[in-house]
Amino acid sequence: MAGKKRSEMMEETRAKLIASARKAFAEKGFAAASMDDLTAEAGLTRGALYHNFGDKRGLLQAVVDQLDAEMAARARDIGAKAGNDWDGLLAEGVAYIEMALEPEVQRIVLLDGPAFLGDPSQWPSQNGCLQETRRTVERLIAQGIVRPLDPEAAARLLNGAALNAALWVAACDDPQDVLAKAVEAFRVLAEGLLARPS
Questions:
Q1: What region holds the HTH tetR-type domain (predicted)?
Q2: Which domains does the chain possess?
Q3: What is the pLDDT of residues 116-165, one digit of tens each?
């Protein structure tokens, strides 16, 4: 029983630090958020941060992982409502690109994440999205909707197009204008995979 309480307390501490950091990173950005910003609101010490995440960068990784997982789940839900695998695949990609307009996603995942954590295509959370896209492409190939090509190659190109479009939207001066261009180009690129282009 005592072991369970300790693990629950550790998980609660991690959750508090992630929530506090998420707020601070969204409001101030990673570089400007102080260690006190990250710990004081959670009522915890720097030691708790170091123990659970190693350093501020480790905490950013945990926040990005949480946000990225939420983004993937939202995109999946949108795709599931599209009616079929092809429309779902497009809807997921477009949803991901559109999330670049959300201030929290924009700052933490698309601006600070790459700046401080490196190439987003190498993040563990992106690998999960890639594998889901690959499975969808495999189904579409089996259904004769997508040309018979390497499913992983197609999935990597689709995910890369959506990710880079979102990065472009997040970093530009006129996000609404760029969003429309990015979504149109994403759709046209994706349609190139169709066995019988529309």
A1: 11-71
A2: 1-54 (1.10.10), 63-198 (1.10.357.10)
A3: 999 988 888 777 888 999 999 999 999 999 999 999 999 999 999 999 99
The count of other CB atoms within 10 Å of the CB of residue 87 is: 12
CB 103 within 8 A of CB 26: yes
φ, ψ of residue 146 to 5 degrees: the values are -105, 145
Distances from the Cα of 121 to the Cα of 21, 82, 107, 157, angstroms: 23, 26, 17, 11
- Residue 70 CB neighbours (<10 A): 14
Long-range CB pairs of 173-179 (<8 Å, 24+ gap) are 175/100, 175/101, 176/101, 179/97, 179/98, 179/100, 179/101
Q: Which has the minimum average pLDDT: 4-13, 164-173, 185-194?
A: 4-13
Mean pLDDT is lowest, of 12-16, 71-75, 122-126, 168-172, for: 122-126
Category of 82 on φ-ψ map: left (φ > 0), alpha (ψ -120 to 50) or beta: alpha
